Amino acid sequence: MRNLKSKSNLDKEAGNTLNKTLFIRELDVTKDPTIKSVVDEILRDNGRIDVLINNAGYMSLDAIDQKSLEWCQGMMDTNYWGVVRTTNAVLPAMKKQMSGRIINVSSIAGVLALPFYATYSATKFAIEGYSESIAPVLRDGYNIRVSMVEPGPVKTELTNMVFGTPFEEQAKDFDPILRDLVVTNLKPKAAGLSSVLQGADEIAKLHMDIILSDNPHLRYQTSENLTKRAVMKLRDPTTDFLLDMLKQSGNASPAE
């Protein structure tokens, strides 16, 4: 975690596993030295790294043009480049041992972009493209499996912050047309959030299923409803056919 001063809840939840099978360390995905420190410690103490779950990220309303480019770059630095940094940090060990699991937590917003959250959606689309590209190479060359998890809203502090703050307040400085669009469209969705909200334990169980699978999919939606939404855009919601891009005929363009 970025700030070890905030680890009291984690310490409590860890119980008697703390510092035995569960270790809490400082890691900021925007700072290479903190990533290297954790990776070096794991390799020193265990000699290998079997699993990387890229879960760091945040979202916020940008409504197309209401945030500075620096603000947008900051979100991309965490949500996307953070995935690249940590992946690059573990790959030497995983390649050497010829095994590993990398789980990149994307979002249904990486399949169907969310209006008013352009930057957040762009970061998740970037993760999807990156993962699609590296997955067949790492699988066929090094027996390293890459999977994406595409949740909708999950019961976390982030969701409480994003949807718990009145949209009238979030959009108070927007021009009248844009402010009205934000409130009119997002307020009803926030009101119905409880019916689609998933628990963090449910997502964690899916992560474990992926880790233990002999042949994990490239994509996993976290609920039946989200799979139905993905089907609207993807001909196969697991997109396993993309893993065979290296084996497909060179007659077709990659974009076809």
UniProtKB/TrEMBL annotation:
Top-rank lineage group of the source organism: Eukaryota
Bilayer-crossing residues are: 102-120
Q: Which SUPFAM superfamilies does the UniProt record give? A: NAD(P)-binding Rossmann-fold domains
Pfam families given in the database record: adh_short
Q: Which GO terms describe its cellular component?
A: cytosol
GO molecular function list: oxidoreductase activity
Q: Which UniProt keywords apply?
A: Membrane, Oxidoreductase, Transmembrane, Transmembrane helix
Family per similarity comment: Belongs to the short-chain dehydrogenases/reductases (SDR) family.
Listed name of the protein: Uncharacterized protein
Q: Which organism is it from?
A: Patiria miniata
